[in-house]
Amino acid sequence: MKKFIILFSFLLGIVVTAYGQKISYDGSDGMEWQFKRCYMKGETCIVDLVVTNMGRKDMSYTLYWFPDAGTTGIVAYDDEGNTYNYQNIRGTFGKAEFGNSNVYDLVIPREVSLKLHCEIRDFDEFAAMIKVLKFPLVDNTTHTRCSLQIKDIPVPRE
After folding, report:
1. Cβ neighbours of residue 34 under 8 Å, at least 6 residues apart?
2. 58 contact partners, CB below 8 Å, separation of at least 6
3. CATH code of the domain in which 76 resides
4. Total domain count, the chain
5. What is the pLDDT of residues 51-108, one digit of tens each?
6. CB–CB of 131/38 below 8 Å?
7. pTM
8. What is the DSSP letter of 122?
9. Could you tell me which of 123, 142, 137 has the C-alpha nearest to residue 47?
10. Which domain holds residue 85?
11. Which residues contact 40 (CB under 8 A, 6 or more apart)?
């Protein structure tokens, strides 16, 4: 029985690793990004994240929703080879709503968690995974470009 439990735990670990999301962020230290969920609502794929500012001060960012000043704008790629850009993507970050303008200034208070809610409209009916979801940001403290990328997000279907 003990061998079975160890084997089952090992296999479960492989499944979690194989389908786990990979979050990368090349901005300031102290920002913790956590994937919460992905689900379909009609033809819209919804992705929820939570960010917590663990730094010593409030953080200020500029999010570029569509291409400008050398940025690519928000973009997502699925496993069927489709690309979704600002025309298909809208959402909220804290209380700020995105999808109608290019530039959004964000402040993430110290030791506070904020929800990032992203909706990808007209999502391919055969796509089973978002390969990459990328948010281009500028850190207003250091004035450097950075990005938040979430890779390998499974899209559950009923």
Report:
1. 23, 49, 50, 51, 52
2. 107, 108, 109, 110
3. 2.60.40.10
4. 1
5. 998 888 888 888 877 666 556 788 999 999 999 988 899 988 887 788 766 677 888 8
6. no
7. 0.79
8. T
9. 123
10. 22-154
11. 46, 123, 155, 156, 157, 158
pLDDT value at 5 more than 70: no
Tokens 């990005």, residue?
A: 147
Residue 42 falls inside a structural domain: yes
Compute, in degrees rounded to 10, the torsion defined by CA atoms 42, 128, 115, 16: 140
141 burial level (CB within 10 Å; 0-12, 13-18, 19+): middle
> Which tens digits make up the pLDDT trace of 111-145?
889 999 999 999 999 999 999 999 888 888 888 88
Tell me the pLDDT tens digit for each residue of 15-31: 333 346 788 887 777 88
- Contacts for 29 with CB less than 8 Å, ≥ 6 apart: 55
Q: How many CB atoms lie within 10 A of CB 43?
A: 11
Q: Which residues of 104-118 are buried (b: 16+ CB within 10 A; e: fewer)?
A: bebebeeeeebebbb
